[in-house]
Each structure stands twice: as structure tokens, then as C-alpha cells.
Amino acid sequence: MKVLDRFEVNDRLARIDKDLKRGLVSKAIDRSHGFIRAYPNNLEFRRKLGEIYFQVGRIDKAGLYWLLIEDDDPRIKEAVSLYLESINGSGYKALRDLKFYGEENRLPDGVKHLLSSLQTKAEKEVGHIPTYGGKKNESPVDKRTTVQKFKDSAFIGAVILMLILVVVFLLVGAVTTFRWLFYMVWTLRYRQAGGEPCRRRRSLQRLIYGWSRSG
């Protein structure tokens, strides 16, 4: 996993600043997210994204991205505290929100201690620790959720299949009824005309039903 040097980091931070100077805040946020995913070990991009959110008034969101930043800046401490308060101090939610794809051993010692504390809380809350990328470790809770989703999907599929079968049966019944009425009407017509109903009826049966009888 590539780690950018100072020159490369500054070059990418300059691109974000250029977006901000042009008033393209959303683009700057998207670009920051892209750099965070591409270079997760370079925490400077998390710091920058936290700064952007702080400037636009999203203090709790800033706290999320400053969670891995070790700094005595009172703004950072305030934002992190507000974020943790917004999730009721849940270690599980914090780890899920972080989306940290980098190497934990590269983090500062203080941040490692924070992560360890969040992991301990997560285990107490849900019985397992989620990975920072948003994927959960396998657990009985996850298995039950997967089974329930499968049951729900199977039920919906069964209902759709039943509706299709009902429509098919209705169509088959309509065709059969039409054939019977058609046969009865023409049989009655032949009889009223004084023709040869038996022979004509057999001809009509072969015409309608595709029967092949000898005369």
C-alpha cells in the first residue's frame, strides 16, 4: 500500500485548496474522500477533510475525520467529543464510520490506544469487532441477519411465482371457455340449418382441437 511523501501529499492538498478557492466545496470533499481511500496511511487527508467539514459547520462530521488525528488543537478535541456524543459513545459505530483501510501499526501511539478502547467497547456492544473498511467479522448475529434476509427474499419470490401461476391459470381457463362456447354456438347453428350435424361437428372438433379422426 503506497505511502505518499511530503511533496506528493502537498501536491494533492493543493488540488483540494484549489477546489475550495473556486467555491467547489462538494468537489473538494469528494476529492478528499478519494485521497483517503487511495492513500489511507496518509492521515493528512483526514485532517484536511475534517477542516472542510468544520468550516461548513458540520462539527460532528469533522470530529469523525479528526478521530485519528493526534493534536492538542481545542477545535479538534471539541469536534471529536461532539462526534462521539452523537453516536452515544458507541465503539462499534465509531469503528464502522471510520472506514480506515490503512495499517494500524503506522498510527501514533495515542490513536492506537483510542482504537483499542473502541474495539473493547464494540465487543461488549455486539460481540465482535468490525473492520475499519465497513465489513464486519463473521459472527452469530451476522449469520442470523443473513438467514433472515434469505427467508424474506424466498417469501417474496414465492408470492411472485404464485401470482404468475394464477395469471397463467386464468389465461388457460379463458381460452378453454372460449373454445367451448365457440363449439357450442357452431353446433347449434348447424342443427338449426338442418345440415349434417354429426359429420360437421366432427369436422369442427378437428378444426378447433386439432383432432385427427377418420370419417
Quick take:
This is Tetratricopeptide repeat protein. The protein is an all-alpha fold. The chain has nine helices and no strands.
Q: Any descriptors?
A:
215 residues; mainly alpha; Serine Threonine Protein Phosphatase 5, Tetratricopeptide repeat; 2 domains; 9 helices; 0% strand; elongated; disordered C terminus; membrane
Number of domain modules: 2
Name of the level-1 CATH class of the largest domain: Mainly Alpha
DSSP strand count: 0
- Secondary structure: helix percent: over 70%
Order of helices and strands: HHHHHHHHH
Largest sheet: none
Might you state the CATH topology name of the largest domain?
A: Serine Threonine Protein Phosphatase 5, Tetratricopeptide repeat
SS content category: mainly alpha
Radius of gyration: 36 Å
Can you put this structure into words, describing what you see?
With about 220 residues, the protein is an all-alpha fold. The protein folds into 2 domains: about 5-135, Serine Threonine Protein Phosphatase 5, Tetratricopeptide repeat, CATH 1.25.40; about 140-210, no CATH class. Helix content is about 70%, strand content about 0%. The protein has helices at about 5-20, 25-40, 45-55, 60-65, 75-85, 90-100, 110-125, 140-190, 195-210. Helix 6 (about 90-100) packs across helix 7. The protein is elongated, with a radius of gyration of 36 Å.
Write the layout of secondary structure elements.
Layout: H1 6-21, H2 25-38, H3 44-55, H4 59-65, H5 74-86, H6 91-98, H7 109-126, H8 140-192, H9 197-209
Helix pairs in contact: 1-2, 2-3, 3-4, 4-5, 6-7, 8-9
